Amino acid sequence: xxxxxxxxxxxxALLSSVISLGAKQSARVARIGSFxxxxxxxxxxxYTGFYVLIEHQIxxxxxxxxxxxxxxxxxxxxxxxxxxxxxxxxxxxxSLFGIGYTREFxxxxxxxxxxxxxxxxxxxxxxxxxxxxxxxxxxxxWEIMSLASYFLVTFQHTQAANRSAGFLYLLMAHLGGLAIxxxxxxxxxxxxxxxxxxxxxNEMRQHSNITPFWANLAVGLSLFGFGMKAGLVPAHAxxxxxxxxxxxxxxxxxxxxMLKVAIYGFMRVTFDLVSTLSLHWSWGVVLIxxxxxxxxxxxxxxxxxxxxxxxxxYSSIENVGxxxxxxxxxLLFHSQNSPALAxxxxxxxxxxILNHSIFKSLLFLSAGAVLHNTHERNLEQMGGLIRRxxxxxxxxxxxxxxxxxxxxxxGFVSEWLTFQAALQTTxxxxxxxxxxxxxxxxxxxxxxxxxxxxxxKLYGTAFLGQPRSKHVKHAHEIDxxxxxxxxxxxxxxxxxxxxxxxVISILEVIPREFIGFELPNVSAEGWLWLTPISPGVASxxxxxxxxxxVTVWGLGYLLLHDPKKSRISPAWDCGFGxxxxxxxxxxxxxxxxxxxxxxxxxxxxxxxxxxxxxTLHSKRIDYKLEIxxxxxxxxxxPIAAVVNYxxxxxxxxxxxxIRTYLSYSFFTLLFLLWLIT
Amino acid sequence: MELSLFANWFLAGxxxxxxxxxxxxxxxxxxxxxxxxxxxxxxxxxxxxxDLRKFFRKEVVVADGASWLFRATPYIVLGTMILSxxxxxxxxxxxxxxxxxxxxxLTSFFALxxxxxxxxxxxxxxxxxxxxxxxxxxxxxxxxxxxxxxxFTLSMTASTTNLSSTIEYLLQHGxxxxxxxxxxxxxxxxxxxxxxxxIPIDNPSTHLELTMVHEAMILEYSGRHLGLxxxxxxxxxxxxxxxxxxxxxxxxxxxxxxxxxxxxGVLAIIGKLMILGLVLAVYxxxxxxxxxxxxxxxxxxxxxxxxxxxxxxVILEVG
Lengths: 677, 319
Known about the structure:
The complex is a heterodimer of chains A (677) and B (319). Chain A has 677 residues and is mostly helical. Helices cover 68% and strands 6% of the residues of chain A. Chain A has 26 helices and 5 strands. The model of chain A has no long low-confidence stretch (mean pLDDT 88). Chain B is mainly alpha-helical and 319 residues long. Chain B starts with a helix and ends with a helix. Strand 3 of chain A pairs parallel with strand 1 of chain B.
């Protein structure tokens, strides 16, 4: 009975996309019905995931569909169960938010129909990737996910920027898809004997005779394919173009969940399908380097963005980088025979995957609420929103605290676990590794400090201070559904931060399945104390931290607060009078010191034009600042130029003359005949 | 057993209380040393206490348009600082509060306090607030990795990130000259100076628009709010002082909870902090404040020192 739980969420998602086809008849019914079904699907998915993780029962199902000699194999094990929970929770929140958020699209030219239709397909695709137990279903679902999300990115297609972002996204998705297909091809073909392809994951797992060369090549291809989808540097440039232009609840799903599905794919291939021990140890170093570069560059680029949603998209690159650092540590420790540390790193990675999907969805939903209210994405036009949209501002604050890795919220726990793993290098043989790993920890420290700076900038300019434009000044609070959706995610951020021992005791089964080791001492001192390695090495008690801060706050407030002794008066304006909102620090000004310190990272074009009067006083100053991604000019454009050149050169053989084409066919036939004989 | 557990928590609370009440005195001592070096007649050592009392009595003036964040921040900042005071072993090791948070968590407590101060600074919508917040966040982004690198060196030696266990490890292994420790100590001191807003990074006794960092952030605060923030800042200075004193010169700290050992512990930490305060005063007197954009060089030097510390640990001290 319970194995049917696997397909119910997918069916719900498909039904939801069918229902929204009726938007022409009654837009309201279609909208509410499709989101309701998505929400139900999400709940069932989350329940199924919990069921598998807690009961330790792997669900499998064979469906008599597909090719005659190959049925559809579905399977939900511990790893995919965690991602099932993530999809379930985030899609519940996104549907709750979407009901109110998409109301305005009904009356626009775009209409609700394509949005609802492709949202359902997108969800079904992501769920399908997770339950796939053979390469065929995996690739089909993967393509459905990519294509559906392309239509969601280009939903507001009348803007040229959205169309070109969508095209870039489609291109990159297919390049990545090709690499993944090749990786599966290698795993299916090279493990077993010749021409006896085993496309089901079960057969791939049993291929013991795959040579290390092919195993490493498969992992390399899957790193390329999945890494491209996950937004790793240097193939990241499509992500900040595509994610922000989709409607906000879709951005939440893309950044919060779809990136995680790509990471899931990579983990499935690396830890499950290929035997981890046949991998070369340097894969760990590769992952740490790529992850470190993504984390640092991601956050540095995020710091320079003044578009709210673009900033969040760049910060997703940073977080994917952090996850890959942990995965790299895991591979490295595993290859050096320290399974305890490998499990710790894997738990750190999984915890961060969970955390990032929660807080990034929260931040995108809150950004959507701001967008819904003000139709403004530019930070330089915002300000003072904490007084206009207090709930959204509060939830966004919690999201920012979590993403900046501050205790007692959830982002801190996963980062702390990564630090703990990175500091236990004394057991390693190689001196280079003993240095490299703590250095990656320092990089992580720099990244998290910069991300705190980034979110102070974002929160300070958007929500605090004085409004910088009229439409922001008259923003109004959003409806209840959108508020509850954010509230639930914000509450989860706190919960995941306060009870890490409970979360880890559930997650523990995943490294046990893939590394064969679980952490014995995580809750050695009870649920209150998180002690990942042993109580003597390190401990952290999030509940007590929260309790102490609240106690001191309460005590201080009780003892000192005296409403009689406070007065409201204008802020200090240096005695000149008349401070205006334009005098506030802008987002660009806030990030200027960082821009100056890490100058070579960006391609910066700064122009100051000053018109002077005869008295040498400036009449008017124009300031222009353009910051562009270096990967465009150094990677994307050269590749595009090469492709264009090849295409043009090849174009010469297309004469448009039928006789030439016939002679091409003739000579090809001749060549093939010669080849056979 | 139950009784001793209770007594331990009680002692830990007492130690925290001692740290937060002594914190203004340390500032008074540094100021007195500086005044003497400048050939001034020093103000009383108790002056910081008098200032705090004055702040707590005065009325609060809140800028119009400031949100709840502005009013809540002083309490959050003080709460976080008291929590970090509870985590650091001042007089005795092996107290139960030390297990609440290790040194990495301690750094992020500072980060939490800084996050809220910077937000509160931007809340009033004045140019000063944003300027102070931007500079403070820039400096700390560079200081935090340097600090973590320095403490990582220690925790790799002791193979623990718990402060109390690190100190116990160092005491057990006696006086061994470790090059990594010298580098780490220097790095941590430079970070401490930057993070507590002292010369050459920031000047605590000026309100010059061009140069101020920390003072620009708290410009809009007054009355009890300012008192809370000032006190929190003094606690932060004290925590850094205790961290340096007890990690690099651990001798004297009580490892058993007998009255004699605790007495020696109190005397030892007072002596160590007096010396550190004097060193800081001399350092501040001999140096001039750096230009803001020279500060990254200073901090990357601190990072480099800490990195050297870790490299020398890896190369020289592990077999």
